[in-house]
Write a structure and sequence with these properties.
With about 170 residues, the chain is α/β, with parallel strands linked by helices. Helices cover about 35% and strands about 15% of the residues. Helix 1 links the parallel strand 2 and strand 3.
């Protein structure tokens, strides 16, 4: 965990616990990771929000052990999934990025879980393999959809700046 000064983003990554009693608005960075193969888009969003008094839940671990099995009885894997589910549940906003060239099955699962929550801001650039499905779901559930990472960061900044002024 780092950050913490008013006016600076607080970034929390697993395995650090999610903060309790945090009065800052929060964002969860959901989306393409693909076992570390997807571009580290989270670093760009974090940089774009670094000066804001927000808490950012970033599920991308710096140290991922390939020996962990994607099975419920693997304690490290279970901790990661439970951390992500708790962060998604607690976040005020969920930024979901679907990278071109990525299959992102877990990101699609997360989109399904939170499509009707009113908390998603979506980025699905051209080239994502199921973009048509994503566009239709976004339309059905009135999910704001941006065309690229820069636009996603802009929308997040705008949202947090507007919310802090009210």
């Amino acid at each position: 965990m780092n950050g913490g000064v008013q006016g600076q983003a607080l970034v929390v990554t697993p395995p650090a616990p999610l903060p309790i009693g945090n009065d800052r608005p929060s964002i969860f960075l959901a989306g393409s990771i693909d076992q570390g193969d997807a571009p580290d888009w989270q670093v760009k969003i974090i940089a774009m929000l670094a000066d804001l008094p927000v808490t950012i839940f970033n599920p991308r671990r710096k140290l991922w052990d390939e020996r962990w099995r994607a099975e419920a009885d693997d304690p490290e894997f279970r901790h990661q999934v439970e951390w992500e589910l708790s962060g998604l549940d607690r976040a005020d906003i969920i930024a979901l990025y679907l990278a071109p060239g990525s299959l992102a099955p877990i990101s699609l699962l997360e989109m399904g879980l939170y499509a009707s929550s009113g908390r998603l801001i979506l980025c699905c650039p051209d080239g994502f393999w199921r973009k048509g499905n994503i566009d239709i779901v976004a339309e059905r559930y009135a999910i704001h959809c941006t065309p690229n990472i820069d636009a996603l960061g802009y929308e997040l900044r705008k949202k947090f700046l507007l919310d802090s002024s009210s």
